[in-house]
Amino acid sequence: MSDHSLTEYLNTAQEVARKAGEMVKEAFYKEKDLMTKESYADIVTETDQAVEKLIISLLHEKYPTHQFIGEESTAEGKKVEWTDAPTWIIDPIDGTANFVHSIPQTCVCIGLSINKQMVVGVVHLPITGQTYFASKGGGAYCNSQRITVSKVKDLKKSVVITEAGNSRDPKILSTKMNNVHRVVEASHGVRMFGSAAVNMCTVAEGKGEVYFEYGIHIWDFAAAGIIFTEAGGVLIDPSGGDVDFLSRRVLAACNRDIADQLSPVLTHIEFDQD
Ligand code: LIP
Question: Ligand 1 centre from 248 Cα, in Å?
């Protein structure tokens, strides 16, 4: 993979994310039609579906042999098939609940993997005007600003970001809440911004030290994943092993010290793979 084509993929992803963002922004200020997926809190709107179709059609026109993994195509019954082929991994609106409730932390996520390695990522927040992006080896940026993770090495001096997620299974919820309790005891506090990608980009730019979540999907954090590692962060499984984008869980820390202090505080939740 030459740097030249990575730059071209990154530029295309940014261009497509901005076009998709215009559609999200237009819908953000209007009434939304809600549908639900796996629980009453797992929501989708017509905009999610229309934006995903737009992104796939624009990318397919340019790269007809590339593969796609999209949140809404998967919800419509398409299984996740992640191969070594160039694959665009798309979340048309990450932070759908924020979008529905008019909270600006909502974003379009477009990532590209080659040989199952993330090589390009764009996370575009159309309401706030922030565009985070990275390509392998090229560093991470927010708009024109290079971004890097925090240098704090002590969990007791850290802010930790997580989410309650959209499962309403009482056992999963109580494990997550117990995790939050223990993390609050061990740190400066916990924040929840409502989007995996926004959470990861926030830590990537040195605001807060670590984000972890159980129950997310590959499209929620694939694009943000490369932005995070290019900003100098450590992206692992919450148990301490290698990150697995299909495992539905992640720990994104500003450095290994923070990751190693947080991991034993957590009860690790297992999910079926994406
Ligand atoms: C959301 C994630 C968030 C998680 C939510 C949901 P969506 O993705 O970004 O981290 O807590 O339950 O999965 O559904 O807005 O694309």
Answer: 11
